């Protein structure tokens, strides 16, 4: 999990998931950000529980800041329930855009833009950090 800033709010527990073929923003997060440019979409998602879900919509080119690096990210907005604590899910499209290097043995995730990079210890987890911070 990594901290990301979207729309002036920091989401401390955003999940990088190499197994996810899309980037997902729960509708509860979308509502907090007050972004109004969601586009309708005709796709249907099949989730891990094998149920199919119709997304709320598509957000294109949302600027996601990870420390000093900024990436344009397309998100599928998914209604996961009002009080859901599901984080932003940054899948393969984000990891590709961020030129991610993943060392599973050492537990390192490196994100890169040109000559700059940032490194995260994926084994490090602090339960005391809030999910979101204004």
TrEMBL record:
Pfam families cross-referenced by the UniProt entry: Asp_protease_2
InterPro entries, sorted: Peptidase_aspartic_dom_sf
Domain of life assignment: Eukaryota
PANTHER family with a match to the protein in the record: RNA-DIRECTED DNA POLYMERASE, RNA-DIRECTED DNA POLYMERASE-RELATED
Protein name as it appears in the record: Aspartic peptidase DDI1-type domain-containing protein
Originating species: Cinchona calisaya
